[in-house]
């Protein structure tokens, strides 16, 4: 391979379009790009058949180059709130919902089935699982993307997911060395984690050490500053040689791919003179793949490639290091059979995507995740009389799911995280005419108008149920609501499972995978019929997922029809 081709293999690029076009052709042909990342917002991922045609077209462009090396084609299909392929594919409840079930078998099944669906449409690399330990309730970017706050829970669920994904696609653990204890979004700024090395060893590094031991093929870096690991001022981990090479490679013995988080995020792009210089620094630190997105134009992405190429030509990046990175990339492409099987047949999609078995499994997991946090006077399950009026005020529409249970239902659906004062007043006026209220929230602790809405509804002194459709911490803002459930997400299966639970068709089985500070401990979860499980009665430590089952049993895919 020429140096130009080698450096190109280290570039994962992005573009706008639902089919191959001149922009992506330039990146593959002129910049020799070895990888492409797909997003829904850039119209790359619209539905499974379109995505399959797109990935086939991208692989054809790569096949036409001098060496014809197949592409890594990636996306962020974490499940839950972060998923790119949703229309026509199976929707999953997400990591914190999985953590609430405490079942590693579910993490394995969800990952295996997700990987099967991705591979069927030509995506061969998933930027998942998220291995961050969400110990900070104010974390604005991770939250329900994490399995929970217990390092061993995250490690065990993550390990099961890795095995599931890697039956079909490359798994990518993120965000090293751990993004769970931040209160700044690295898309917008540079978070700082001021912890000792000892504390990092006890929390953040636990899931990554486990992932390495389980043979994960890729690790994504975090745009966070960790002084205990590298005290260079304002230096993100992505650009730190002591962190990527010293810690991840040498101390932890990791031999797989290191891929950066998006180099267009403010946590890295705003430092060291822009993306091209930051990309050079990331490679010097030990990154194998530079991740770019359509936030950069095609010309700007080519500039990044040229900056790394020029640094390599000048010897600022050792030739041996470039060779090692490219060898890792080629080996993983060979491991997943891309040289022989780069193309997919769209006609095969119905056999692998949104199958009855996948949909059934997804629904089963979502039902098992719903966590009943508070149930004053056994308000739940709701036992509505035919003439009682139920009012729904929610971030996400629930009425079509509720009406089969109860005809006299009215809904105000406000699709914005901070409803206006006029929206709040309209909701209150509607609620005045109702007998029982069902309220959906979405990260209310970070959105004051949602809190204002809930408190205004509380002043009506009506029976009221609140469902948190993202982070479970919302009850901190209104601790005296009569009934409160955590659904951990807003995908269709979570909405359905939450409604079924409220109306008595599903027994709540989930246990909090995080602490709700000052209110409810890790492991807390109520049941209907007077039964309950709280932190004191959680007999097993977080690393013992399924009582009485072996690791093989836990990871074994179970046919949900049995």
TrEMBL record:
Q: What is its EC number?
A: 3.2.1.52
Where does the UniProt annotation place the signal sequence?
A: none
List the keywords (alphabetical): Glycosidase, Hydrolase
InterPro entries assigned: GH (IPR017853), Glyco_hydro_3_AS (IPR019800), Glyco_hydro_3_C (IPR002772), Glyco_hydro_3_C_sf (IPR036881), Glyco_hydro_3_N (IPR001764), Glyco_hydro_3_N_sf (IPR036962), NagZ_Beta-hexosaminidase (IPR050226)
| Segments for region (Disordered) | 530-562
Q: Which reaction does it catalyse?
A: Hydrolysis of terminal non-reducing N-acetyl-D-hexosamine residues in N-acetyl-beta-D-hexosaminides
Superkingdom of the source species: Bacteria
Q: Where is the Glycoside hydrolase family 3 C-terminal domain?
A: 370-518
Q: Does the keyword Transmembrane helix apply?
A: no
- Start and end of every Glycoside hydrolase family 3 N-terminal domain? 3-332
**Enzyme category, top tier:** hydrolase
Q: Where is the composition biased (Basic and acidic residues)?
A: 549-562
Q: Which GO terms describe its molecular function?
A: hydrolase activity
Pfam families in the record: Glyco_hydro_3 (PF00933), Glyco_hydro_3_C (PF01915)
> Hydrolase as a keyword?
yes
- Matching SUPFAM superfamilies: (Trans)glycosidases, Beta-D-glucan exohydrolase, C-terminal domain
Q: Which family does it belong to?
A: Belongs to the glycosyl hydrolase 3 family.
- Name of the protein: beta-N-acetylhexosaminidase
Q: Which organism is it from?
A: Polycladomyces zharkentensis
């Amino acid at each position: 391979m020429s140096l130009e081709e080698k450096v190109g293999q280290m570039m994962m690029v992005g573009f706008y379009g639902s089919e191959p076009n001149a922009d992506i052709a330039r990146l593959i042909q002129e910049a020799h790009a070895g990888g492409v990342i797909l997003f829904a917002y850039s119209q790359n991922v619209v539905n499974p058949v379109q995505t399959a045609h797109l990935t086939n077209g991208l692989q054809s462009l790569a096949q036409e180059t001098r060496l014809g090396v197949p592409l890594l084609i990636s996306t962020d299909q974490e499940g839950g709130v972060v998923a790119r392929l949703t229309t026509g594919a199976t929707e999953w409840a997400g990591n914190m919902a999985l953590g609430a079930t405490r079942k590693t078998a579910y993490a394995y099944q969800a990952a295996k089935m997700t990987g099967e669906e991705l591979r069927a449409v030509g995506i061969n690399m998933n930027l998942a699982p998220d291995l961050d330990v969400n110990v900070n309730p104010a974390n604005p970017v991770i939250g329900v993307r994490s399995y929970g706050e217990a390092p061993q829970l995250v490690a065990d669920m993550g390990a099961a997911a890795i095995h599931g994904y890697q039956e079909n696609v490359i798994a990518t653990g993120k965000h090293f060395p751990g993004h769970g204890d931040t209160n700044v979004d690295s898309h917008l700024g540079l978070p700082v984690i001021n912890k000792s090395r000892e504390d990092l060893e006890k929390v953040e590094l636990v899931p990554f050490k486990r992932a390495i031991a389980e043979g994960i093929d890729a690790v994504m870096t975090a745009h966070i500053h960790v002084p205990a690991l590298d005290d260079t001022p304002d230096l993100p981990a992505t650009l730190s040689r002591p962190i990527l090479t010293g810690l991840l490679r040498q101390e932890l013995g990791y031999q797989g791919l290191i891929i950066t988080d998006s180099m267009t995020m403010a946590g890295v792009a705003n430092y060291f003179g822009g993306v091209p210089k930051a990309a050079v620094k990331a490679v010097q630190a030990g990154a194998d793949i530079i991740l770019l997105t359509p936030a950069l134009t095609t010309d700007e992405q080519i500039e990044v490639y040229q900056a790394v190429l020029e640094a390599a030509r000048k010897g600022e990046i050792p030739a041996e290091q470039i060779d090692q990175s490219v060898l890792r990339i080629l080996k993983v492409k060979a491991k997943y059979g891309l040289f022989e099987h780069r193309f997919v047949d769209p006609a095969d999609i119905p056999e692998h995507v949104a199958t009855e078995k996948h949909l059934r499994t997804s629904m089963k997991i979502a039902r098992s995740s719903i966590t009943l946090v508070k149930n004053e006077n056994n308000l739940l399950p709701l036992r509505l009389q035919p003439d009682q009026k139920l009012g729904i005020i929610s971030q996400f529409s629930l009425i079509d799911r509720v009406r089969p249970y109860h005809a006299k239902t009215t809904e105000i659906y406000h699709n914005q995280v901070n409803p206006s004062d006029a929206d709040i007043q309209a909701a209150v006026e509607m609620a005045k005419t109702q007998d029982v209220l069902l309220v959906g929230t979405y990260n209310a602790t970070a959105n004051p108008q949602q809190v204002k809405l809930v408190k205004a509804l509380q002043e009506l002194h009506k029976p009221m149920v609140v469902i948190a459709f993202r982070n479970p911490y919302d009850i901190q803002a209104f601790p005296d609501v009569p009934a409160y459930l955590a659904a951990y997400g807003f995908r269709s299966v979570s909405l359905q499972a939450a409604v079924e639970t409220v109306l008595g068709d599903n027994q709540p089985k989930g246990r909090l995978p995080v602490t709700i500070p000052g209110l409810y401990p890790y492991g807390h979860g109520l049941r209907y019929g007077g039964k309950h499980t709280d932190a004191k009665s959680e007999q097993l430590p977080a690393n013992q997922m399924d009582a009485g089952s072996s690791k093989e049993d836990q990871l074994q895919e179970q046919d949900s029809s049995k």
